Hints:
CATH superfamily: Phosphate transport system protein phou homolog 2, domain 2
Organism: Clostridium homopropionicum DSM 5847
Shape: globular
CATH class: Mainly Alpha
Keywords: Coiled coil
Family: Belongs to the UPF0111 family.
Number of strands: 0
CATH topology: Methane Monooxygenase Hydroxylase, Chain G, domain 1
Coiled coil: 133-202
Radius of gyration: 18 Å
Helix content: over 70%
Protein name: Putative pit accessory protein
CATH architecture: Up-down Bundle
Number of helices: 6
Number of domains: 1
Amino acid sequence: MKWSTRKKDKLFLMLLDISTNLKEGGQYFLDYKIKEEKDLEEFLYKMKDYEHKGDVLVDEIIKELNNTFITPIEREDALELAVHMDKVLDGLEQCAAHFYMFNIYNIDNYMLEFCDWLNKCIVEIHNAVDLISQKKLAEIRQHAVKIKEYENKCDLLERRAIKELFEKQKDVIRLIQYKEIYEILENTVDECRKVAKALETVVMKNA
């Protein structure tokens, strides 16, 4: 398929809005410093705002797909991309909710490293979706490859984190809570990998 490069398609701009909200939410998630119990509620509410905005943007793109006869990429590919970006943001909000519910404000180094890799994935997602909006498909694959590399690093990180948790954590309740948070973070990175696959599908079908 050959696309005109004169203007950005509405559907691509809507996908870019979703990725921009995800990027902003991911940066806030990374930068916010939880130092004491009172920080947890503010952190959760702000992440809930990003998550709610993401839901609204996905609803809008579904309406656009239903109402548009001809789309620049296949409907199912656009929806797949939008849904998995939204699930990444859902994962961030879920993690913030668990910090709040479990009253965890002593964030350990494994969580911090997870957050760093996760944010790197999100930046790559945004950069790739921006390329879609500019109709520069040939440049997208490098970002998908980086997302997969970061996800592989997080697989190893989760194993190290859980191994050390079982070796050193004597409080069984805390052990269960920390393990659940590590798994939420890893599942969120897995959603980033699904975004990468969706991006590669778009490239494969339209480049």
